[in-house]
Amino acid sequence: MRIGLFVPCYVDAFEPEVGIATLELLERFGLTVEYPYDQTCCGQPMTNTGCHQEAAATEALFVENFSGFDYIVAPSGSCVHQVREHLTAIPQTDEVKAVRAKTFELVEFLHDVLKIEALPWAEFPHKVAYHSNCNALRGIGHARPTELNRPFFSKPLNLLKKVKGLEIVDLTRPDECCGFGGTFSVFEPGVSAKMGYDKVTDQARAGAAYVVSADSSCLMHQKGCAERLGLPQKYIHIAQVLNGAAA
Amino acid sequence: MSADDLTPRQTEDVLHREVRAPSDESERGPGGERLQHAEAASKPIRADAPREPQPRGAKVRGNRPIDQAEAAERFLAAPLHQKAHDERLWDVRRKRDVAAHGIPEWEELRELASQIKTHTLTHLDHYLEQFEAAAKANGVHVHWAEDGAAHNRIVLDILKKHGAKSLVKSKSMLTEECGFRHFMAANDIAVIETDLGERIQQLDEEEPSHVVMPAVHKTRLDVAEVFARTLGTDPDNDDAHYLAESQRETTRPLILQADAGLTGCNFAIAETGTVVTCTNEGNADLSGNVPPLQIHSIGIEKLIPKVEHLGVFIRLLSRSALGSPITQYTSHFRGPRAGTEMHMVLVDNGRSERLAMEEFWTSLKCIRCGACMNTCPVYRRSGGLSYGATYSGPIGLIIDPTFNKRKYSTLPFSSTMNGSCTNVCPVKINIHEQIFAWRKVLAEEHRIPLLKQGMMKAAGAVLSRPAAYRAAIQTADSALRVLPRFAVYNPANTWGKKREMPHAPRQSFHAWYRQNRMKKETDA
């Protein structure tokens, strides 16, 4: 099985530990993981702003880098959502379609493809608020969102359940958007930051020592908001927790 | 630990404790339980100290693109208003969840409603003709209006023919679209709104900020101020009962003396020619049934084929809107009372054009419940007036550009595209996907700011060239300039104003991989 690791641009630049944890975690399950060296980005910043034409070359590069793998795995719900749902600025050849269909977010890859049963190395004895990234939650179906009258399920929480000592705390608004929203965060900074402040205040009030999420972009926004408000909780990607990060 | 222990639960607490009233003065039932009025909050929320002027909406300058972000900043700068607004609407969203989750077949109902609308809209010509024939057979005068101006002229002609000088009306978003009140004022017709929230907005000369709760952005103190100024009430008395009763006492005589009455329409039933209105105040009944001349304004997308389909929508409407099982009044207007005339005006106003838009026609399924607004985190923090349009919130973002692509070109960007709106929509409009699709249309037609498009072009150029990308992200500072997800090159640094900057790691993942893994490969 050939696995291609996609490390999104902002993980590459700002949160390299998340990429390292993802790589190590996949290797713990005996997988051989390749990292295509010329990778950059999935094209999301451009398409989310409506600029599909401006995204075409980046999308083509993505397909060039990841063509031929059995699975492409990335630690980001929003980038996987982009690849799967919105990588449409280039002609949809069989190659492009195959890459799009084979791209998985880390949690769903572990949960649905590997169907992992145990994480014996993982221990995280802390109170945790889980943050559902909106694209992971409502876009690629990580969990049942609160709006829908369907039986509850949550892939990330099923995985976190296997982590020794981890305790989940309840939020007033468990799956409300944190306000990052890609370029929304810079084009509408007032509302974006207020949403972030409300989110991190909710987490602090719930007694969370850590906030865990499957998306570094939301975490980066929330971390920036929490630091500005002087709140104590820390932010960590689910890949790190599942890989056995001590704290 | 069982799976249940990890299942997150929404807690009952409010996020902003500053606006939680210290005591609950709500009316009590015989058993001492809090009475839950259909439109009331499930917990008392108030924003009274320090007294804060009400923030006003977007600055509208002709056809110039609306600056929603600017108006939102002013709303945020009135924290008590913003917090009360957010808590009030979040409470409605939570009540909606409880109501929706109480119906086992809820998701099937949504699907059914969506399909009924799909069928009706794709056979709209047929159902409109059926409706017209049925209404005429009921003795109703049926009119067709191509746009808002035609609607207003038709109604004015009817009024003139009867020598009517005053008109009472119930809330109707369609008439807001048409600029009805302003037109009638210019033609010396006294229009009186009978919905309490809409009346507050009329007296304050402000547009409604929400399709179901027109004055939800106002606090009790704001209403006390408006009523003191316009109705002569005691400016220091913000007791809700006092204010509601004062409005009722001053408006009731106007209803009884009105020459004509007008209602909007929630559902128009093709097989029977019936107009159905849903209200909690009974004001559509007063507007329709009291005056000797009766007019109903109907958007052509309001059609449903048969009475048997109505139940599906009635079950969804109020649960989605307010979390109550049904509106207090569901009224069927079918034919004129003895000795009076009934008119129905079927209005297009851009709907046919929208019906032909491949990516956007399903927005015509909207039943105006406002659930997408209540759940929208951006709407709750910016207020409905910040959109500077008849329709605000998520549904507004996808409908408004069909009315005016230039003026509303900015609105589809006032969203994080989180998708909650789509999930609460009772007729399953893919709202957040249409927001995404609108952005594409607007960029292709160069209707987004040049600066924004230029930045995306630059980002695309860097992100499609590995060497350029590597050079750009060597330091966190330079990465912040290049990676548009965080901080597009921006001298004002809008990221850093409100948030701490991300801390620069020692090296990128890429550099770590080269150092730790590629070296290994070479060694091996």
From TrEMBL, chain A:
<feature type="domain" description="Cysteine-rich">
    <location>
        <begin position="128"/>
        <end position="221"/>
    </location>
</feature>
<protein>
    <submittedName>
        <fullName>(Fe-S)-binding protein</fullName>
    </submittedName>
</protein>
<dbReference type="Pfam" id="PF02754">
    <property type="entry name" value="CCG"/>
</dbReference>
<feature type="domain" description="Cysteine-rich">
    <location>
        <begin position="4"/>
        <end position="83"/>
    </location>
</feature>
<dbReference type="InterPro" id="IPR004017">
    <property type="entry name" value="Cys_rich_dom"/>
</dbReference>
Automatic annotation (TrEMBL), chain B:
<dbReference type="InterPro" id="IPR017896">
    <property type="entry name" value="4Fe4S_Fe-S-bd"/>
</dbReference>
<keyword id="KW-0004">4Fe-4S</keyword>
<protein>
    <submittedName>
        <fullName>Lactate utilization protein B</fullName>
    </submittedName>
</protein>
<keyword id="KW-0479">Metal-binding</keyword>
<keyword id="KW-0411">Iron-sulfur</keyword>
<dbReference type="Pfam" id="PF13183">
    <property type="entry name" value="Fer4_8"/>
</dbReference>
<dbReference type="InterPro" id="IPR024185">
    <property type="entry name" value="FTHF_cligase-like_sf"/>
</dbReference>
<feature type="compositionally biased region" description="Basic and acidic residues">
    <location>
        <begin position="1"/>
        <end position="37"/>
    </location>
</feature>
<feature type="region of interest" description="Disordered">
    <location>
        <begin position="1"/>
        <end position="63"/>
    </location>
</feature>
<dbReference type="InterPro" id="IPR017900">
    <property type="entry name" value="4Fe4S_Fe_S_CS"/>
</dbReference>
<dbReference type="InterPro" id="IPR024569">
    <property type="entry name" value="LutB_C"/>
</dbReference>
<dbReference type="Pfam" id="PF02589">
    <property type="entry name" value="LUD_dom"/>
</dbReference>
<feature type="domain" description="4Fe-4S ferredoxin-type">
    <location>
        <begin position="357"/>
        <end position="378"/>
    </location>
</feature>
<dbReference type="InterPro" id="IPR037171">
    <property type="entry name" value="NagB/RpiA_transferase-like"/>
</dbReference>
<feature type="compositionally biased region" description="Basic and acidic residues">
    <location>
        <begin position="45"/>
        <end position="54"/>
    </location>
</feature>
<keyword id="KW-0408">Iron</keyword>
<dbReference type="InterPro" id="IPR003741">
    <property type="entry name" value="LUD_dom"/>
</dbReference>
<keyword id="KW-0677">Repeat</keyword>
<dbReference type="InterPro" id="IPR009051">
    <property type="entry name" value="Helical_ferredxn"/>
</dbReference>
<dbReference type="InterPro" id="IPR004452">
    <property type="entry name" value="LutB/LldF"/>
</dbReference>
<dbReference type="Pfam" id="PF11870">
    <property type="entry name" value="LutB_C"/>
</dbReference>
<keyword id="KW-0813">Transport</keyword>
